[in-house]
Amino acid sequence: MKLSKGSYESEISKAITHWEKEFLGRGSISVKTDILRNMIIVNLKGILTPAEYTVCKTKEGMLTIKKTRSELVESGIEDLKDIILTITGEKVKSFHTDISSRTGERVMVFLLYNDLEKNL
Q1: What is the distance between the alpha carbons of residues 94 and 27, in angstroms, rounded to a whole number?
Q2: What is the DSSP letter of 42?
Q3: Which of helix, strand or coil describes residue 77?
Q4: Are residues 117 and 108 in contact, defined by beta-carbon separation less than 8 angstroms?
Q5: This prediction's pTM
Q6: Among candidate residues 79, 70, 97, 105, the one with its CA nearest the CA of residue 22
Q7: pLDDT per position as a tens digit, 45-90
Q8: Rounded CA gap, 120 and 40, in Å?
Q9: What distances in angstroms separate CA 45 from CA 1, 29, 81, one per listed residue?
Q10: What is the CATH number of domain 5-115?
Q11: Which of 3, 17, 27, 47 could form a disulfide with 21 if both were Cys (CB 3.0 to 4.6 A apart)?
């Protein structure tokens, strides 16, 4: 049985939340996933801790938090690629991520080899 686009998006959101809790020790407040052409875009809200928001008040602190958080996520990239492959059957070509120190949101973009949206 083929899942709907919304079902895939929901499954990816759940799996990434689970990964965050297992790998990073805590999850985001909300996760929203969108499949667009050959991209899976994941928007995670409530990433930063209260202490990290405080540290982010200085430019140096913000750069340190962004770098540390980025390294943490990058160190789990194989797990994330496996999540996408398991749920969608598609291999990840490249992965991009950034975090906003102002809003505490992270965006993850998985570029796939194929147009997943067209195949749904």
Answers
A1: 23
A2: E
A3: helix
A4: no
A5: 0.93
A6: 79
A7: 999 999 999 999 999 999 999 999 999 999 999 999 999 999 999 9
A8: 13
A9: 32, 6, 21
A10: 3.30.980
A11: 27
